[in-house]
Structure formats: structure tokens, C-alpha cells
Automatic annotation (TrEMBL), chain A:
PANTHER family membership: GLUTAMINE TRANSPORT SYSTEM PERMEASE PROTEIN GLNP, MEMBRANE COMPONENT OF AMINO ACID ABC TRANSPORTER
Domain ABC transmembrane type-1: 21-210
Species whose genome carries this gene: Ancylobacter oerskovii
Main location: membrane
The keyword Cell membrane is annotated on this UniProt entry: yes
Source species taxonomy: Bacteria, Pseudomonadati, Pseudomonadota, Alphaproteobacteria, Hyphomicrobiales
Localization per record: Cell inner membrane; Cell membrane
Residues annotated as transmembrane: 20-44, 73-98, 191-213
Stretch forming the signal peptide: none
Record-given protein name: Amino acid ABC transporter permease
Automatic annotation (TrEMBL), chain B:
Domain ABC transporter residue range list: 8-251
Signal sequence range: none
Key words of the record: ATP-binding, Cell membrane, Membrane, Nucleotide-binding, Transport
SMART domains the UniProt entry points to: AAA (SM00382)
Membrane topology: Peripheral membrane protein
Pfam families: ABC_tran (PF00005)
Protein name, entry field: Amino acid ABC transporter ATP-binding protein
TrEMBL record, chain C:
Classification via InterPro entries: AA_ABC_transptr_permease_3TM, ArtM/GltK/GlnP/TcyL/YhdX-like, MetI-like, MetI-like_sf
Keyword Membrane among UniProt keywords: yes
A Pfam family reported for this protein in Swiss-Prot or TrEMBL: BPD_transp_1
TM segment ranges: 23-45, 192-213
Role noted for this protein: Part of the binding-protein-dependent transport system for glutamine; probably responsible for the translocation of the substrate across the membrane.
Entry-linked CDD domains: TM_PBP2
Similarity remark: Belongs to the binding-protein-dependent transport system permease family. HisMQ subfamily.
Protein name stated in the entry: Amino acid ABC transporter permease
Record localization: Cell inner membrane; Cell membrane
Species name: Ancylobacter oerskovii
Major location (coarse): membrane
Length: 223, 259, 222
């Protein structure tokens, strides 16, 4: 059987797909930003000297890292409103689920970076009378930050891929737009292949960019 | 040595790594039972030469002839090409001992020696075990059979590596600087084993820095310089009365060497 | 704002979730076992010096790693039939997509694992006349595997989470049954909480195992 390709439905509706891509990036950007904040809070919580902070932070991190994101999408969209009385838009629910989940992963990157700073640095800070918070802010985080960048970027790419699950909440990101178009035009092959290429292009270029950044960091560290 | 078919013949052997030509045409005929010591400063190509013989490195040009039968065929641009089955046959006939021993760390000493006979030659395990124990006894390590290599000293590891090569019952043995990564006090036990083998009339080629040992071991000494055989002859000729200035200069650097 | 949880009704439908769970486990087992093996061959091609196998393997790996797994499953279920005329069942499409996706990640783990072995080990095997296949089976894989187990375990954890996405193409695994249950009972909060806990209980031991293996490996200094 010879398949006859027909990309016209794709070109005619390319604006719709672009709109979907923009929404994908919007959701990604928002969730990465919020996720980094949540991640830093969770990491500092996990490393805090008191158990009242470290145990809940650890629990949240481990729970979100070991459960499927799709469950959280549904939980925030269908479950949370029952608990709080506030119903979330698909965007808000997706952003909440993505931010907390990637926050849990970011937290482990932050923690890894912080722990990797050698003991002598902590001792030197304490020796001149710095408190825990001062030590973190002035001595540890600036040093840890550089080696966190590559894993943070990698985690962010994972997040971009995960945003596609927002389609299940009918948020109009790229996959959702494609599903709507596919049912309208009966051209699933062309449309789904096109969005695969779109995702690939964005993510592949981003990972090439990341390699360049990594290269530069390595060079600077060698100097 | 000259009249009978040589066990091994190397003809016009060349080897380049990228633009860098390491071997620039080497010819050598090895008769049965000959023991050849290959000397030369680092970068002279002596290890590469040895590694080309069993195709650990694929020669860029030339021929390797084993018992009258050439290995591989001349491919594009004169580069030797050999089928992997042919290479495997070659390597069961030509054993190699490495500078770094390269024992298999996940196997016991006995399993290391049995591995070739069982996996490659398809011997029955019982038969291979008996044979392996035999060869371990020969290198003086029968009691270490069930140990893992990491527990052994460097000298012991190298003796196991020799047993592993012997277990394949090869016609020729290649030693690639077998004592260069050993602590000085462990060199002797390995050299003793190799000397013991030379009493059995085996054909051996040895790359080494141990000039004193080369003198006692070899029936012929080659001195390699810049990818060519610069001088060759009996140990007495090359090591005591070298004709070439390069060889003399090389030997002078080993002032502390006694025969 | 006091909400009284009604977990009883969810637990009463435990058999429904259990049925879904069976399919989740089957999906995981098929995709993971296939990917571990297939990853070796793609990894070998990826590490190969030969241009063509290397190019194909690289393209494959990059393609699957740089597109969302949801798109891959949708593609195999809804798009591929248009091209090939073969309509797989939802389960087959999901298993295929997850298998190919995980293979790409496993290939990178294999490649790194194989490259971590000193060159002398390959040479020693060749020097006693081993074929490439014998080398892999007897020398390389047994040594590399210990180093790769933590990474494979992590990959298994990711795959276990990914299986839930199969629900979007109507595979009746755990997540799908949960959605059904939540609409039948009008108890989404309880349903998705219970399901999240089920996934956690299933997956967390894997993560703990990976931690432990990694620690043991580091202390061995391997």
C-alpha cells in the first residue's frame, strides 16, 4: 500500500500549531521559574538543621520524584478544587503540577551542588562567625551554582517534554492543538509527525545550546 | 633457520597512525625455536611492531606470513584486511602477554586460564581445568588457582597471564614489555618463568628494556630505530660489539647494565 | 472548609485498580526487558567507529530523547496506521512506544558502560582469539553490568512513571482505571490520592535500590 502524503492541512493550519508551541513554551517558562523557587526552598528545607523542616521537605521531594506526573496533573485539576473550593484553569493546574514536580527534581540538583562544596569552606565560614543563612548565601551557593547549571538545564528539557501532558487537561498546548487538528482534517500522520519535528527542533537546539554552555563552563573552570 | 620455511615472516610491514608513520618497512623471518629480543628507545615502534604481528593493530601495508600462509589480503591502498574468523585463528596460534597483564578481574586465576580453551577452542570444562592447573603449576602458582587476580602481586598476575597464553598452546609467543609495569623486586620471578619457557624450544618474540635479560634470553637481538630494524645479530654482536652508532648510544644510556 | 474524605468507596473498588495495575506491570516488564537488550545493540552501534551505524544510532537516540513520550505513543497509535495500514491495539502501540523510548536511554547507558572498561580487557580477549560476541558475553558485559545497574534502575523508575501515559491512548492500565473510577464515584480527590500512593509504593523501592547500589559502587571505588 502506497501512502499519499498530504501536508496541506499542516500548512493551512500552521498558525494553530505555532500558537500551540507558544503555549507550550509559556507553560514551560512559567513552570521552570516557579519550579526553581520551589526547588530552592525544598533543598534548603532538606538541608536545614532542624527536623521540622528537613523531614517534610524530604517527603515532598521523594513523593513527587517517585510518582507519575500525570497523576499530579489530575490531582491538581480535579482533586484540589474539592479540597480548597477554588477551581483551577487547565493552565494553572498544569503549571502547579509541573512546578512542584520539577521543583522536587531541582531540589535534588541544588542539594547535590551544595553538598559538593568541600567541608573546608563551611568551616572557614563558621570560623569567621557566619550563621547558617549567611554561609549559604555568601559562601556556598555562589560556588555551587556553576556546577548546578548543566543538570538544571537538563531537568528543564524534561519539563518541556512533560508539558505535553497538559493536553489531557485540554490546555491548548502543542499536542492538544494537534489532536484537535488531526480529528478535523483526518491527517494524523502529517500532523503528529510535524509536531514531533517541532518538539525535536526546540529541544535539540536547546540541548546543543546547553552543550555550548557546558563547554564554556568547563573552559572557565580550567582557567 | 634460513633454509626451512620460517614459522613467521614479516614482509615490508608499515604502520601509520594518522599522518604519523611509526613503522617504515620491516622485514623479518623467524625460524622455529628462535627467541628474538626487540630493543629500542621509546617511540622506536617496537611495541607497535609486535602488536601488528597478531593484528592487535592492523598493519597499513606489508604481509604477515604464518607457516607459509599469508594472513589477510591486500585491500584498498595496500592496507591489509583480514576476516574476523581468520584473525581469531591467527590469535589462537600466536599468544600475547601484555605490559599491563590484562587479566579478567571478574574471573578467578583458574577461570582466567581456562577461558580461552573453553570459550574459543571449545574444550570440555574438565579437560580445560586439568590443563589450566598444569600450566599454573608450570608458572609456580598452582596454589593461587581459586584467588581473584586483584589479590595477587603484579609479578604473580603476569605469571598467570603467561599461563593464560600458554593454555591456548600457541606456536609463537609475543611478550610486550612484560616487566615494565612491575616493581623491581618482582621482575625476577617473571623473567625466570620466561627463561624456563625458552628451555622448551618455543618460538618467542620479546620487547623489553631489560638488556641483561635480553642477552641471556635471546638467540637474536633486533635494535629498532625510527620504525626500521637498525641492527640485528646475536646477543654478543648487538649488545657487546654494536656496529651502529645509534645502538652504541642506546646501550650507553643503560650504564648500570651487566650481563 | 472541612472536607470529609471518603476513601472507603475507593478501596471497595480495589479490584478495578488491581486489574489496571496488572496491565501497568505487564507494560513495564515488556518495555523494560526489551529495551535492556535492544539498548545494547544500539549502544554498540552508537559507540562504533563505523560511520553509518553510528549515524543511524545517534539519530535514533536523539529523536526519541528529544520528543515527548506522549507524542511518541500518539504517533504509534494514531499516525502510524495511516502510513503502514497496520492498526496496533492500544496496548501494542503503548508497549512499542515505551520500549523504543527506553531503548534510546538504555543505549546511552550501555555505551557509557562499555566505554568505561579499560581497552586492555578488549585486547586480552582478542589476543586469545575471542570473537566480538564472545568478548561481549564473557568479558565486557559481566564487568560493565555492575557499573550500569544504578543507571538502569533509574531508567526503570522513569519508565514505571511513563507507563501512566499509556492511559491517554486508552490502554486500561492503572491510570486509566483511576480516571474511570473518579468519574463513576465523583471522588477524584480520593481516587488520585490513592493512585499516587500506589505508584509511590511501587516505584520508591526502585529509587532506594538505586541509591544503595550507587553507594556500594562508590565505596568499592569501581
Amino acid at each position: 500500500m502506497q501512502y499519499v502524503w498530504d501536508f496541506r492541512p499542516v500548512w493551512l493550519n500552521f498558525g494553530v500549531l505555532l500558537e500551540g508551541l507558544v503555549n507550550t513554551l509559556k507553560l514551560s517558562g512559567f513552570s521552570i521559574g516557579l519550579g526553581l523557587v520551589i526547588g530552592l526552598v525544598l533543598a534548603l528545607g532538606r538541608l536545614a538543621p532542624t527536623r521540622f523542616l528537613s523531614i517534610p521537605a524530604t517527603a515532598i521531594i521523594e513523593f513527587y520524584r517517585n510518582t507519575p506526573p500525570l497523576v499530579h496533573f489530575f490531582w491538581y485539576f480535579y482533586g484540589l478544587p474539592i479540597l480548597t473550593g477554588i477551581s483551577l484553569t487547565p493552565f494553572a493546574a498544569a503549571a502547579a503540577a509541573l512546578s512542584v514536580q520539577s521543583g522536587a527534581f531541582f531540589a535534588e540538583v541544588f542539594r547535590g551542588g551544595i553538598v559538593s562544596v568541600e567541608r573546608g569552606q563551611w568551616e572557614a565560614g563558621r570560623a569567621i562567625g557566619m550563621g547558617h543563612a549567611q554561609l549559604m548565601r555568601r559562601i556556598i551557593l555562589p560556588q555551587a551554582f556553576r556546577r548546578m547549571i548543566p543538570p538544571l538545564m537538563e531537568r528543564s528539557f524534561e519539563l518541556v517534554k512533560t508539558t505535553s501532558l497538559a493536553a489531557t487537561l485540554t490546555y491548548g498546548e502543542l499536542v492538544y492543538k494537534a489532536m484537535v487538528l488531526a480529528t478535523q482534517t483526518y491527517r494524523p500522520m502529517e500532523i503528529y509527525s510535524t509536531i514531533a519535528v517541532m518538539f525535536f527542533t526546540v529541544l535539540f537546539l536547546a540541548s546543543l545550546g546547553m552543550r555550548a554552555v557546558e563547554h564554556r563552563l568547563a573552559r572557565r573552570a580550567a582557567r | 633457520m634460513a633454509d626451512a620455511t620460517p614459522v613467521l615472516a614479516v614482509e615490508g610491514l608499515r604502520k601509520s597512525f594518522g599522518p604519523n608513520e611509526v613503522l617504515k618497512g620491516i622485514d623479518l623471518k623467524v625460524g622455529a625455536g628462535e627467541r628474538i629480543a626487540i630493543l629500542g628507545s621509546s617511540g622506536s615502534g617496537k611495541s607497535t611492531f609486535l602488536r601488528c604481528i597478531n593484528f592487535m593493530e592492523t598493519p597499513s601495508a606489508g604481509r604477515i606470513v604464518l607457516d607459509g600462509a599469508p594472513i589477510g589480503t591486500q585491500g584498498r591502498g595496500g592496507v591489509l584486511a583480514a576476516k574476523s574468523a581468520e584473525l581469531r585463528r591467527l590469535r589462537t596460534r600466536v599468544g600475547m602477554i601484555f605490559q599491563q597483564f590484562n587479566l579478567f578481574p571478574h574471573m578467578t586465576v583458574l577461570e582466567n586460564v581456562m577461558e580461552g580453551p573453553v570459550t574459543v577452542k571449545g574444550l570440555k570444562r574438565e579437560e580445560a581445568r586439568a590443563k589450566a592447573q598444569d600450566y599454573l603449576k608450570r608458572v609456580g602458582l598452582a596454589e593461587k588457582a581459586d584467588q581473584y587476580p586483584q589479590r595477587l602481586s603484579g609479578g604473580q598476575q603476569q605469571r598467570v597471564a603467561i599461563a593464560r597464553a600458554l593454555a591456548m598452546e600457541p606456536e609463537i609467543l609475543l611478550f610486550d614489555e612484560p616487566t615494565s609495569s612491575l616493581d623491581p623486586e618482582l621482575v625476577g620471578e617473571v623473567l625466570d618463568v620466561i627463561l624456563g619457557l625458552s628451555q622448551e624450544g618455543r618460538t618467542m618474540l620479546l620487547v623489553t628494556h631489560e638488556l641483561g635479560f635480553a642477552y641471556h634470553f635471546a638467540t637474536r637481538v633486533l635494535f629498532l630505530h625510527e620504525g626500521r630494524i637498525h641492527e640485528q645479530g646475536t646477543p654478543d654482536e648487538v649488545l657487546k660489539n654494536p656496529g651502529q652508532e645509534r645502538t652504541q648510544a642506546f646501550l650507553r644510556r643503560f650504564s648500570a647494565f651487566h650481563f | 472548609m472541612s472536607y470529609s474524605f471518603q476513601f472507603g468507596e475507593i478501596l471497595a473498588n480495589g479490584d478495578l485498580l488491581l486489574r489496571g495495575l496488572k496491565l501497568t506491570v505487564l507494560l513495564f516488564a515488556l518495555a523494560f526487558s526489551g529495551a535492556l537488550v535492544c539498548g545494547l545493540f544500539i549502544g554498540l552501534a552508537r559507540g562504533s567507529a563505523r560511520r553509518l551505524p553510528n549515524l543511524i544510532a545517534t539519530a535514533y537516540i536523539e529523536l526519541f530523547r528529544n520528543t515527548p513520550v506522549l507524542v511518541q505513543l500518539i504517533w504509534f497509535y494514531y499516525a502510524m496506521p495511516a502510513l503502514t495500514g497496520w492498526q496496533p491495539t492500544a496496548f501494542t502501540a503503548a508497549a512499542l512506544g515505551l520500549f523504543l523510548n527506553t531503548s534510546a536511554y538504555c543505549a546511552e547507558i550501555w555505551r557509557a558502560g562499555l566505554q568505561s572498561l579499560p581497552a586492555g580487557q578488549w585486547e586480552a580477549g582478542r589476543a586469545i582469539g575471542m570473537s566480538e560476541w564472545q568478548l561481549l558475553r564473557r568479558i565486557v558485559v559481566p564487568q560493565a553490568i555492575a557499573r550500569m545497574v544504578p543507571a538502569f534502575t533509574n531508567r526503570g523508575v522513569e519508565l514505571a512513571k511513563m507507563t501512566s501515559i499509556a492511559s491517554t491512548i486508552t490502554v486500561q492500565e492503572l491510570m486509566y482505571e483511576a480516571k474511570m473510577l473518579s468519574t463513576q464515584t465523583f471522588l477524584p480527590l480520593e481516587t488520585f490520592t490513592v493512585v499516587a500512593v500506589i505508584y509511590f509504593v511501587l516505584i520508591y523501592p526502585g529509587t532506594l535500590a538505586a541509591y544503595a547500589l550507587e553507594r556500594r559502587l562508590n565505596s568499592k571505588g569501581a
